[in-house]
Design a protein that fits this description.
alpha+beta; Cation-dependent Mannose-6-phosphate Receptor, Chain A; 8 helices; 17% helix; extended
Length: 457
């Protein structure tokens, strides 16, 4: 049966602009037009519908129009699948944390627990931690962190159950536009954050937007303050991809083959011209005009081609501060938290009414590391290095000094400010601290045979 929808779309496109390649029409159907040479014989029992196209240069082509795959256009009700809460349990049950760095603030998202914003101040070299809780997931505390009564907890629980039932009635998740695509997402709201002075003490609130991305690392791709003291965190996670309803639907491309008729070139002149111009653009043969910023003079465009296709670069000052040990990474969400200052130390700490307790898990010493490195020939690879921090505090269980291996790994991501950090204790008082981030990639590439980073960028 001839599909009028396909015919109208391809006829108009080929007639008006012949150079078609992976064109998407308003109905979100993609077509790929290929020029298959002269028509030598007519095939029998061809399923596609042929149509004669005449270009604006009076060139003629017979094009085989495919039948539209109706299954791509129909909205099918998805089958039963795990709830997003179940899919995200590996994150929430194990209290895993994701981090996003910038020059001034660090953002910590401990899934199922809290969102925190913090930074170090250094008045007179005495470090002061400045932090704000941007939201908590606990239902048994109020905005001031005080325990709720049993009646208040029950009310919060009933309210949460009603919200879960409401979400369960919604078969398909909501969608949002991201990079020109409609992306399904799951939203988690954490409130009861630090009181906001701008809102007369109303607690801060965070909305975490989880989206499916198979090759992601549960990274925070953006943090925005969408209203006063209301924050939105966008998170890519592979866990939601286990459900069909959270997967991004790929566009199916309908293939169209066009054969030139007698007296017409294999490819239309307008198509060839378009390809040549596109190739010139790609190779940087065209100059581009830049709109000057108000108050500035015209831009020099003589080297404009040098500024195209340059990948995003990490924050150089942030990298310098990290290398010098002035920018420390922190993690943990339970009784013990931990701190890693590159080239200085790895430690654990917790605070209570009696004060702050600190245990050094390892102290950096270049000679100690190099001696360890010579005994561990697999210490360095193309995407990670291991640094050895020895001479930590004496362990009560072993009677020996604590040690920490810091495994620094290059994370392949365009979100350069992402960092993943975790702490393991495979043996009593012997620790492994893992740090994954894109900012480490260039450092690892230029590390020496013992995994030591260059001192200058």
């Amino acid at each position: 049966m001839f599909n009028l929808r396909v015919f109208v779309g391809i006829f108009v496109q080929l007639l008006c602009v012949v150079f078609c390649k992976n064109v998407m029409f308003d109905d979100s159907v993609r077509y790929d037009v290929s020029w298959a040479g002269p028509l030598r014989s007519r095939r029998q029992n061809v399923k596609e519908s042929p149509v004669i196209i005449t270009t604006r240069d009076n060139e003629q082509y017979e094009c085989s129009l495919p039948k539209l795959r109706e299954d791509l256009m129909d909205d099918h009700s998805p089958g039963p699948s795990p709830s997003p809460e179940e899919l995200l349990k590996p994150l929430t049950a194990n209290m895993r944390c994701s981090y996003r760095l910038d020059t001034y603030w660090t953002y910590e998202l401990c899934h199922g627990s809290h969102v925190r914003q913090y930074r170090d101040e250094k008045p007179a070299q005495n470090k002061v931690l400045q932090e704000y809780m941007l939201g908590r997931a606990e239902k048994d505390v109020d905005k001031d962190g005080k325990k709720l009564s049993k009646e208040e907890v029950e009310q919060a629980k009933e309210s949460g159950e009603k919200e879960d039932e409401k979400q369960a009635e919604q078969i398909l998740p909501p969608k949002r536009h991201l990079n020109g695509r409609e992306v399904p997402y799951y939203e988690v709201i954490m409130d009861n954050g630090t009181p906001c002075e701008l809102l007369q003490g109303k607690p801060r609130e965070s909305r975490i937007i989880y989206m499916c991305k198979p090759d992601s690392h549960n990274e925070i791709i953006s943090v925005k303050e969408i209203e006063s003291c209301v924050y939105q965190l966008e998170v890519f996670t592979p866990l939601l991809c286990a459900s069909d309803i959270f997967q991004i639907k790929e566009d199916f491309i309908h293939s169209i083959r066009c054969h030139s008729l007698k007296g017409s070139p294999i490819e239309p002149h307008s198509y060839v011209k378009h390809i040549q111009e596109s190739e010139a653009d790609r190779l940087g043969f065209r100059e581009y005009q830049y709109m000057p910023v108000q108050g500035e003079g015209p831009k020099d465009t003589s080297k404009s081609s040098e500024h195209r296709n340059i990948p995003p670069q990490p924050d150089q000052q942030l990298t310098r501060d990290f290398l010098s040990g002035d920018y420390c990474l922190r993690g943990g969400s339970g009784w013990w938290n931990y701190e890693y200052c590159h080239g200085k130390h790895v430690l654990q700490y917790h605070s209570d009414q009696q004060g702050k307790t600190i245990i050094y898990l390892g102290i950096w010493n270049m000679d100690v590391h190099r001696d360890w490195a010579k005994k561990n020939p697999t210490r360095k690879s193309d995407d990670y290095v291991t640094h050895y921090y020895g001479n930590g505090e004496i362990c009560d269980l072993t009677g020996m000094a604590r040690t920490a291996q810091v495994r620094l790994r290059c994370m392949k991501s365009t979100h350069l400010q992402e960092v993943s950090i975790y702490l393991l204790e495979p043996k009593p008082c012997q620790y492994i601290l893992g740090v994954d981030s894109p900012i480490l990639c260039s450092l690892i590439k230029n590390a020496d045979e013992d995994g030591i980073f260059p001192t200058t960028l």
